[in-house]
Amino acid sequence: MRLRTPMPELPTAEEWLNSSPLTKEDLVGEKPTLFHFWSVSCGLCKEAMPDVNQFRDEYAGDLNVVAVHMPRSEKDLDMNQIRQSAEEHNITQPVYVDNKHALTDAFDNQYVPSYYVFDAEGLLRHSQAGGGGMKMLRKRVNRVLGNHIKE
Question: Alpha-carbon Rg of the chain, whole angstroms?
Answer without folding.
Answer: 14
